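Recall that a protein's primary structure is simply its ordered list of amino acids. Everything else, from secondary elements to tertiary packing, is in principle encoded there. The following example makes that idea concrete.
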Amino acid sequence: MSNSAGTHTDLPNFSNFCAANVNPALDSLLEKNLAGIEQLLSDNSQYTWQNLVAPLEEMNDELENFWSPVSHLNAVCNSEELRVAYSGAQPKLSAYATKIGQNHPLYCAYKQIDTSTLDSVQKKIIENAIRDFELSGVALENEQKKRFSEIRQRTSKLTTTFSENVLDSTQAWQKNILDVKALAGMPELAIAGAKQAAQEKGLEGYLLTLEFPSYLPVMTYCDDRELRKEVYTAFATRACVNAEQAQFDNTEIIEELLSLRQELSTILGFDSYAHFSLATKMAKEPEEVLGFLNSLATHSVDIAREEFATLTQFALQRADVSELQAWDVAYYSEKLKQQKFAISQDQLRPYFPLDKVLEGLFSITTRLFDFEIAEVTEFDTWHKDVKLFKLSRDGEDIAHVYLDPFARENKRGGAWMDGCRTRRINQAGQLQLPVAYLVCNFNAPIGNDPALLTHDEVTTLFHEFGHGLHHVLTKIDYADVSGINGVPWDAVELPSQFLENWCWQPQSLAIISKHYSTQETLPADMLTKLIDARNFQSAMAMVRQLEFSLFDYRLHLEYQGDGAYVQTLLDEIRQQVAAIAPPAFNKFQNSFSHIFAGGYAAGYYSYKWAEVLSADAFSLFETKGIFHRETGKSFLNNVLEKGGSEEPLALFTKFRGREPETDALLRHSGIRT
């Protein structure tokens, strides 16, 4: 294990990482932990926090510190050797988790602990553990236990393969453009990026790919309608049998995953996987989730369809486009936005160089939440573009945050935060400081210019840093509910969406913007246009998220083994809530990694659920002032520092003084009620 990135140090040793050592080291660690658990159970007849829970946390933390860098590198520096190691390790981890979860003597030991002398955080951890044992099938009979374990291992393998297929199909498509005239309408920065991409591949001309920094400028700005259609078609058929690379088709994986999830839920006594998922969430019944989503739809659908009708009329008048297609929507939306507000994401880029945005982000958050942050210049890393920051308070280090900002080959698309280390006090009384990974896929610097962000990308950076702060500003000393651990999935987006609000306030925009060459702050007229344009097509954006949420939740609520039902249900939901009807060849579900390769299965609604919380939380700052110290301190004390130690509704109510209301979300979205 000494040659693995998972070596237990303050920060991972990425330069010593060896993929070939992952599985031997993991085997040794899992065997040691299982033996250690058996020893704990045999050494004691009366179980306590100190002789059971504390040593188990030590074992879990060692395993997490070993595995976290492996999982991270698989996402950001994917290689064939690492993929083989990761795929080989996943079933072992799944089997290990199932074996622990179904260990009946261990379950009974937890239930035997006298909690009367424990503090509220320790009690919460034990309550969660007993719940999780039961959700892991601890009470099942032998044959059911065996089948449960098989399902867990198989679903682990399927989700990994799903993710690999999306990555492979994304990277398998590229288009080499020789004549720059084909890219007419696209911003200079996007064209320069395409040229640089071609040069890096040893090609002439310009290279288009399906990575977002390449895909979005084509769909938003390229005048060539046929080229937009070609790129859209490739993107919409990723990991699909209709794609050029049909070997990456995810259709059968989706069907098997849904079937296995339903079977697992049935074994545990739940009506569906949707019911099963709510056992660990804020929402308690499927009717509550569906009622919430349908209520938002009631407020949004008619307005969204009015917005689309306006766009259709605009395209007809401007370019005689009689039937607006999916590959036209972003393009003509941008033209309509320009006509209405005379502002575009590309015009804003020069005012948001990455370093200035980071400086402003840190200025805002340190002011609100009382910490200091400084860049670490020498550290062990996995790529030259990665940055590392140290957080401190009153002269003492409290955390570290990695930032991997740019898109590149063999790196998963999208943006996310993940834990690297979890804050806890170990059995020797030493404090382990938390560490977070922040990963984005922005355009890298081109030539001598710095990396320039769109305002959308600025918002993404704030979002992920909000997750990071939730993980690293915790004051909880027990790993199971420290940082983002133990936070219900439908509440975990609260800090991230909350922090996005500072991307829209004149006072904070002045702090995060400065023209990279003239050093001019975002001009007043552009600032006004940006804010005025905030709710442009906001109802269309709302119903798109509702489409994803309803599809995910109803799919896991209603699926009965009919593979055709996936598309049938998606079509039905689009009929109900969508403003735009995509073409029949669109297979969005085949690359819907959030629910088929991530943690959002039967939980995608969490984004909107948490957005209600975040909008309502920010409304207090709107009243008190966006830099109001006492309100910032209250959010820090009641939300960021508490992790999963208390129920999120209770924490929110302590901060806000009442339970959440939806009014602020609808108001922020510009949707009349």
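The beta strands are 174-177, 206-209, 372-376, 387-393, 396-406, 416-421, 424-425, 431-432, 435-442. The chain has a mean pLDDT of 95.
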